[in-house]
Amino acid sequence: NAGVTQTPKFQVLKTGQSMTLQCAQDMNHEYMSWYRQDPGMGLRLIHYSVGAGITDQGEVPNGYNVSRSTTEDFPLRLLSAAPSQTSVYFCASSYSATRGQPQHFGDGTRLSIL
Amino acid sequence: SQQGEEDPQALSIQEGENATMNCSYKTSINNLQWYRQNSGRGLVHLILIRSNEREKHSGRLRVTLDTSKKSSSLLITASRAADTASYFCATSPMDTGRRALTFGSGTRLQVQP
Asked: Which of A12, A31, A45, B108 qualifies as a cystine partner to B10, CB 3.0-4.6 A?
């Protein structure tokens, strides 16, 4: 099993551009989430989904959109990139949406906004 | 805001020594988890301790939880160079509907061979 796969691994954008970060899991996990990791701040939750067709906002949702049309995929869209969105983005999944399940992480997308 | 805060921020030890990292949190929790992150990689789940447990072991890892002090510790015994990584605690707060974990800012562990 591949686990959680994120693409691309690296990306450089110009301010104002849009893009989609891809996330796919092959474990039939119910719960998926997106985090951003900034130096000295740990991981902060952007959006999450408890199943196909259901998404909700996390701690820092502004400037990002998500959708969950299938169990496997949970893409993150940057609508109009800003330098403040320079970060490392991690997608994670867990077996169920029950509170506090251990999460499986992808290896991240390193995004720079110029 | 950060629910879990690790201490120390950085730790450097010699191979064979024990490494202890601490985590403090603010609100009541369902469970507390520890994760490891190697440089340039995603986080890997190490161990979960429930709010009604006080201590848990997994191989060379020992985790304690003190809910009265809202704190946890992770002990890595007989450390190896391969243990070099960042370690994060993550809490599952009781008072949120977001079903998500809240991560601390991590402890960077360097094990010198």
From this structure: B108
